[in-house]
Design goal:
By secondary structure, this protein is α/β, with parallel strands linked by helices. Helix content is 41%, strand content 10%. The protein binds zinc ion.
């Protein structure tokens, strides 16, 4: 195979190793059932770890898709009220943008949270982050943030994403309890309301992956990343690697991007899992490794490439 551009379209960056370690320890991954041999990254996810992991695995670019949710704040901030939480969200997004400003290999998708900073205020913050701080997209996690994708508090934010031409990276997957906040079909109303929105569903639907093909066929402008689910193939509620490759073929391999969800999963291991997928051609795998992300997310591809293995 020729040299390949490697782009991680979905990783998390933490302010400190302790913060990354804490979130890795407390974020429970349950929706695929149990799998004893999942390969996790040997990193905590601060900037030093991120740059070391990218260099070791030959990635030329990564998208920081940080998550902000009240449920993940420490006790003081959780009790503090929305105004203080909104300040924390704004500071958090500014920090990520400042860090990436001097690092052309990193792009920031800022965290958006309709409970803490929704509606016009959330849209104004987003516009400032993009126009003055270099942000390239937004990240939402409807399960942890407890909102449905078509929540009216998100509409001004989606509209601003369309106006600015930036993508929305949304967690997708199963939720515990009665409300399925982020299964693929929960996004249908948003796509109908904002047909030109550049929506990316993470994890190819996660535990709700059996919906993904029909959703993708109904909404041909939506794209996907394959982080997490590719590490859990073979688990009771996850696809086998053969089923995962079938879903990718049915969705359209040019609509699927490699993500790692670092510091959860390992960058080299994830790329190798893509290369090892059955059914797909070398050309299709090259797209998934990086070229699709460069196109779909409008990232710079003017970075060195490397041999695939
Ligand atoms: Zn993630």
């Amino acid at each position: 195979m020729p040299d390949a551009l490697r782009i991680d379209s979905h990783l998390h960056l933490y302010q400190t190793k302790a913060a990354g370690r804490r979130e890795k320890e407390t974020y429970e991954i349950w929706e695929y059932g149990s799998k004893p041999d999942v390969t996790f990254a040997a990193f905590d996810g601060d900037i030093e770890d991120t740059e070391a992991a990218m260099a070791a695995a030959g990635y030329s670019h990564a998208v920081i898709a940080n998550l902000f949710a009240i449920a993940l704040l420490d006790d003081n901030l959780r009790a503090a009220g929305t105004a203080v939480q909104a300040e924390r969200l704004i500071d958090f997004n500014r920090w990520a943008c400042e860090l990436a400003a001097s690092r052309p290999r990193l792009s920031v998708f800022v965290a958006s949270d309709p409970t803490v900073l929704g509606g016009d205020a959330g849209a104004a913050h987003l516009r400032e982050m993009v126009e003055q701080h270099g942000a390239r997209g937004i990240k939402i996690h409807p399960v942890v943030q407890q909102f449905l994708p078509n929540d009216p508090r998100m509409h001004a934010i989606y509209r601003t994403c369309v106006e600015l031409g930036i993508p929305v990276l949304a967690h997708s997957g199963s939720a515990r309890g009665a409300v399925q906040f982020a299964e693929p079909r929960a996004f249908a109303e948003v796509v109908k309301m904002f047909p030109t929105l550049n929506l990316v569903l993470a994890h190819l639907g996660g535990g709700a992956w059996r919906q993904t093909t029909a959703f993708a066929q109904a909404f041909p402008r939506v794209s996907f990343d394959l982080c997490e689910i590719i590490a859990w193939t073979g688990a009771p509620s996850a696809p086998t690697s053969h089923e995962l490759a079938s879903v990718i073929l049915d969705v359209g391999p040019d609509r699927v991007m490699l993500g790692t969800d670092f510091p959860w999963y390992d960058l080299a291991d994830t790329a190798n899992r893509v290369l090892d997928l059955p059914l797909l051609s070398d050309q299709q795998k090259l797209g998934i490794l990086g070229a699709n992300a460069a196109r779909i997310l409008s990232l710079s591809s003017e970075h060195p490439t490397r041999a695939l293995r």
